[in-house]
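Priority: medium. Attachment 1 of 2:
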């Protein structure tokens, strides 16, 4: 199988969210480096940022997250550092007046995606 082909498909979680928002008429910027945590999606009009997080890397409280059974000395500090950084970024963004929304990878599974995305649109506008 050709890896470059896989990468070029628009099925990455953040692409799913971006496509939906664009179709709903939202306009956004991507990966804004000058904001804490370089948010995946920034909606200036709504003063809202969105992080699309992988359940494993960001330790989501869901069945997709399980501590790896091997190499614990490597994974544990790495993942806990991610969580700490996420919390710090959120605090800084909120202090700057941004609304911070996290969309988790598991919320974008086919069966639940539509529900999550329409909730997201409401969250942005609220
Ligand atoms: Zn999850």
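Attachment 2 of 2:
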């Amino acid at each position: 199988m050709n890896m470059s082909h896989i990468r070029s498909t628009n099925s990455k979680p953040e692409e799913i969210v971006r496509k939906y928002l664009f179709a709903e008429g939202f306009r956004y910027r991507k990966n804004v480096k000058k904001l804490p945590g370089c948010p995946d999606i920034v909606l200036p009009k709504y003063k809202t940022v969105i992080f699309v997080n992988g359940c494993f890397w960001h330790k989501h409280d869901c069945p997709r997250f399980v501590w790896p059974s091997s190499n614990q000395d490597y994974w544990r500090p790495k993942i806990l550092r991610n969580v700490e950084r996420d919390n710090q970024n959120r605090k800084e963004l909120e202090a700057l007046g941004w609304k911070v929304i996290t969309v988790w990878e598991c919320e974008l599974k086919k069966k639940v995606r539509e529900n999550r995305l329409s909730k997201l649109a409401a969250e942005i506008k609220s």
